[in-house]
Design a protein that fits this description.
This protein is an alpha+beta fold and 284 residues long. It has a single domain, classed as 2,3-Dihydroxybiphenyl 1,2-Dioxygenase, domain 1 (Roll), CATH 3.10.180. The protein is built from five helices and 19 strands. A nine-stranded mixed beta sheet has the order 11-6-7-8-5-12-15-14-13. Strands 2-3-4-1-16-19-18-17 form an eight-stranded mixed beta sheet, covered by helices on one side. Strand 9 and strand 10 form a beta hairpin. The longest helix is centred in the first third of the chain and has 14 residues. GO terms for molecular function: lactoylglutathione lyase activity; metal ion binding. This is Glyoxalase. Pfam families: Glyoxalase.
Length: 284
């Protein structure tokens, strides 16, 4: 997990809104394999190692179902430590009969796709060895090929599934955005990421430290897609973890220099991308 620690900037925590907290908690514990770190009447923070918060689910007042064709969450992606871990998870999904929305070989990684009971998208994946990734002119080769599920299941057959491994991290987040020009300026000139893959004029994949992507950005819900209502199911916010205070202060100044809004809330800096996605700038 060398790409999800200092000196890189990476996604550390995601918060999503759900319609029914009890139903969602059962899903995230029994189907995905999280453990509870903190719980209140309207929200739960989830962990894999018992100390690090990775995902929060909350049930706001007057919540409404997920709106289609808007900006916001496409999926958040959980990166498990090994291919065998991914194989165990696939076997678990088959055993409990939970439907997948997709399963792909992306050359740099292998991935399973599904959704929570409210339609919030989830990817669970394992990376191939970075030494096998192919780079051309600072862009990494990625594709969407059929997953070799038989091989994956064989690799994971030795041990029983026992929830998400403690070494799981929030590998990346993929967002629906309304357009790409201002979005690219915000994430590259403002937040300091680099473009590592372009999917035509439809999507950008960006990272720090030569990862295949810490953030994906697409216009697949339509150019000009509106923001969802603030009380709808979907993404509430996500955290970017920066290596130190100096880097965070520089990032805040870069954001302000391009006209992006940065506010301070309870000691945290918060910014909002051009499509309304809310981002906390953290150092831990």
């Amino acid at each position: 997990m060398i790409f999800h620690c200092k000196p890189n900037t990476f996604v550390g925590h995601v918060k999503v809104k759900v319609e029914n907290l009890e139903r969602s908690l059962a899903f995230y514990q029994e189907v995905i394999g999280f453990k509870i770190l903190e719980q209140s009447k309207k929200s739960v923070t989830l962990t894999t190692d018992g100390k690090t918060s990775m995902l929060s689910i909350e049930q706001p007042e007057n919540i409404i179902p997920k709106r289609s064709r808007t900006t916001g969450l496409y999926h958040f992606a959980l990166l498990v430590p090994t291919r065998a871990d991914l194989g165990k998870i696939l076997k678990h999904f088959i055993q409990i009969g939970y439907p997948l929305q997709g399963a792909s070989d992306h050359l740099v990684s292998e991935a399973l796709y599904l959704a929570d009971p409210d339609g919030n998208g989830i990817e669970i994946y394992s990376d191939r060895d970075p030494s096998t990734w192919v780079w051309n002119n600072d862009e990494v080769e990625m594709a969407t090929l059929p997953l070799d599920a038989e091989s994956l299941l064989k690799e994971g057959q030795a041990d029983e599934w026992n929830g998400l491994p403690a070494g799981t991290v929030m590998g990346h987040i993929h967002l629906h955005v309304s357009e790409l020009e201002k979005t690219e300026q915000f994430y590259i000139k403002g937040l300091g990421f680099k473009v590592v893959f372009r999917y035509g004029n439809q999507a950008l994949f960006i990272s720090t430290g030569n990862y295949h992507h810490h953030i994906g950005l697409n216009t697949w819900n339509g150019v000009g897609a509106p923001k969802p209502p603030s009380n709808s199911v979907g993404l509430e916010s996500f955290h970017l973890i920066l290596p130190n205070e100096e880097k965070r202060n520089n990032t805040v100044n870069q954001l302000k220099s391009i006209g992006a809004s940065v506010t301070e809330e309870n000691g945290s800096f918060v910014t909002i991308d051009p499509s309304g996605n809310r981002i906390y700038l953290k150092t831990t």
